[in-house]
Design brief:
CATH architecture of the largest domain: 3-Layer(aba) Sandwich
Number of helices: 13
Strand content: 15-25%
Distance between the termini: 34 Å
Helix content: 25-40%
Oligomer: single chain
Radius of gyration: 23 Å
Number of domains: 2
CATH class of the largest domain: Alpha Beta
C-alpha cells in the first residue's frame, strides 16, 4: 500500500541541538518512566460497563503533567456531547499561542485504554507496571499513555534546551475515549476549533517497523463495527426433544459467520474493496513470529503479507454472548449475539462497507434466522499526503534520533478520527507517529513498551519541536 523504503533527505550535518536535547532526554528518562508507570496504574477503560471515574482520574493526572511544564497559556479538562443526552469522556486541552510567525504544532495522544481481559492471561497484573528486560509491561504502557508521556517529555527537553521564551505555538490534546470509538471527537474538535487550530498535527498512536527502525505511518485501514443478534426461537427448547428438526441460534450463527470468508480465509463479502500498492518486504516467518502463530497453523488470505494487512479488508468476530460451558444445559439456544469488527481498505467509504456487510448477512442468513444489527460504528480509512514540508522535517528528526532512516509504512489498524481532523483542519499537515513496535501487543495481554523505542520517540519529537521553532 505504501512506498518501499525510501532514503530521507536528512542533512549530513547534525542538528545543532541534537546533543543537548539527547542529554536532556536521557537525564529525564528515570522520572519519565516513573510518571508513565503512575498513569498505567489508573485503569482508565473508556468502554461502557467500566468505571468512568477512572477515566476522569487519568484525565486529571495527564492535566497535572501538562500544567507542571509551566509553558502553556491555558490548560483545561473539556468534554463534548456524543448525542443530546450523553457527554463524552474528559479530554485534556492545553494551548500556547505562536509568536513572530512561527508555526503551531498540535500533539495528540489518548489517556483511555482497552479492557485488560483476564488477569490470568497476563504474566504480571495489567495495571501494575512491571519492567522485565528492556520492556515496561502494563495495559496502556504502549497504547497510548506512552504517547502522552512522549509528548510531555519532548516538551520538557525542548524547554530545557531552548528556554521558556520560545515562539513556537503548542497545543496538547489528550483524548479520553479513543478506545471506545472517539464518539464525541467530531463535536469536540468543532466546538474547540480555534483552540486546536495548528499547522502541524502529530498523532502519536501508531507503531515503528522494529525496535531499531522508525516509521512514519502514511496509510491506515478504516473500520466498521457492530453487534449482530441471530435469533431462531421464541424461547429455549429441549435439545433432545427438538434437536435435529429445529435450528438453534448457535447453528445459524456458525453457518452465517462462515460465509464471511472463503476457504483460504480471504474476506468473501461482495462490495468490500482492496487497493493496489507497493509494500516493503515482510516475510511469512516474520508474520509468524510477530503475530504468535502456533506451530502448524497457517496464515490466511492471498497476496504478499503486507498487502493483506494494509490494503485488503479483514473481518474478525471479537466477542460472543452465548451460554458458557459452565452454565450449558441441554437446550436449543434461542438467540446469539456477536461483535463483528471489519477493517476496510484505504479508499473505501465506511458507509458503503457497512451496507455491503449488512446486505451479505441478510442474504446469507440460514434457515430464515432473524437478524438484528445495532451499535454501529464507522471509521474512515486514511492516506497521508506526504508532499508537505513537515513530512521531510519529521523524517529528518527520526533519522537523527534513531540513527537509521525511517520507513513510510501502512498499518492494519484504524485511527478513524483522522478523517475528522482533515475535514475541520484541511490546511494542517498530519504526521502519524508512535512509540510501539511489533512486540508491543497493544490491545492484548502482556502489552508492553520497549524503553529504547520510547527514548528515541521522545528525542524525535523534541528535535521536531526545535526544528519548527527555527522555521518561519
Amino acid at each position: 500500500m505504501t512506498q518501499a523504503p525510501q532514503p530521507t533527505s536528512a542533512s549530513t550535518t547534525p542538528d545543532p541541538q541534537l546533543e543537548p536535547l539527547t542529554q536532556a532526554v536521557l537525564a529525564a528518562m528515570p522520572a519519565t518512566i516513573a510518571e508513565l508507570s503512575t498513569l498505567v496504574r489508573i485503569p482508565s477503560v473508556s468502554w461502557d460497563g467500566f468505571e468512568p471515574e477512572q477515566v476522569q482520574r487519568s484525565a486529571e493526572a495527564a492535566k497535572a503533567l501538562i500544567e507542571g511544564i509551566g509553558v502553556f497559556d491555558s490548560v483545561e479538562l473539556a468534554r463534548a456531547s456524543i448525542d443530546d443526552e450523553t457527554l463524552g469522556h474528559p479530554a485534556v486541552l492545553a494551548t500556547r499561542k505562536a509568536k513572530n510567525g512561527r508555526p503551531t504544532i498540535l500533539l495528540y495522544a489518548h489517556h483511555d485504554v482497552q479492557p485488560p481481559g483476564h488477569d490470568s492471561d497476563w504474566d504480571s497484573p495489567p495495571f501494575e507496571p512491571t519492567v522485565r528486560g528492556d520492556r515496561l509491561y502494563g495495559r496502556g504502557a504502549a497504547d497510548d499513555k506512552a504517547g502522552i508521556m512522549a509528548h510531555v517529555a519532548a516538551i520538557r527537553a525542548f524547554v530545557e534546551t531552548v528556554g521558556e521564551d520560545f515562539d513556537l505555538g503548542l497545543v496538547a490534546f489528550f483524548e479520553g475515549e479513543e478506545e471506545f470509538g472517539s464518539r464525541s471527537f467530531a463535536n469536540f474538535i468543532t466546538e474547540n476549533r480555534e483552540k486546536l487550530a495548528a499547522d502541524v498535527i502529530v498523532v502519536a498512536d501508531s507503531d515503528n517497523w522494529d525496535v531499531n527502525t522508525p516509521s512514519l505511518t502514511v496509510g491506515l485501514r478504516g473500520n466498521v463495527t457492530f453487534k449482530l443478534k441471530v435469533s431462531t426461537l421464541a424461547h429455549a427448547s429441549h435439545s433432545g426433544m427438538f434437536g435435529g428438526a429445529v435450528p438453534d441460534a448457535m447453528l445459524a450463527t456458525v453457518k452465517l459467520l462462515a460465509t464471511l470468508h472463503d476457504e483460504n480465509g480471504s474476506v468473501a463479502v461482495d462490495g468490500l474493496t482492496s487497493r493496489e500498492g507497493q509494500t516493503p518486504e515482510y516475510s511469512e516467518e516474520k508474520l509468524r513470529h510477530e503475530a504468535g502463530l502456533l506451530d502448524g497453523v497457517s496464515s490466511i488470505g492471498s497476496g504478499n503479507v503486507l498487502s493483506r494487512l494494509w490494503d485488503k479488508p479483514a473481518i474478525t468476530i471479537t466477542g460472543i454472548d452465548a451460554p458458557s460451558v459452565m452454565n450449558a444445559s441441554n437446550t436449543l439456544t434461542p438467540s446469539i449475539t456477536v461483535k463483528l469488527s471489519a477493517r476496510i481498505a484505504p479508499g473505501q467509504d465506511p458507509n458503503d462497507a457497512f451496507e455491503a456487510l449488512r446486505a451479505h448477512l441478510h442474504a446469507n442468513a440460514p434457515f430464515g434466522a432473524h437478524l438484528e444489527i445495532s451499535d454501529v460504528d464507522r471509521g474512515s480509512p486514511f492516506l497521508v499526503d506526504t508532499s508537505g514540508w513537515a513530512v521531510e522535517v519529521v523524517k529528518t528528526a527520526m533519522h537523527e534520533a534513531w540513527g537509521n532512516e525511517p520507513l513510510e509504512t501502512g498499518i492494519g489498524g484504524s485511527i478513524p478520527f483522522i478523517s475528522d481532523l482533515v475535514e475541520v483542519f484541511p490546511e494542517a499537515q498530519i504526521l502519524v507517529t508512535g512509540v510501539e513496535d511489533p512486540e508491543s501487543r497493544a490491545h492484548s495481554p502482556n502489552e508492553s513498551l520497549h524503553l529504547g523505542v520510547f527514548k528515541r520517540a521522545i528525542l524525535t519529537e523534541a528535535l521536531l519541536l526545535a526544528k519548527l521553532e527555527r522555521r518561519a
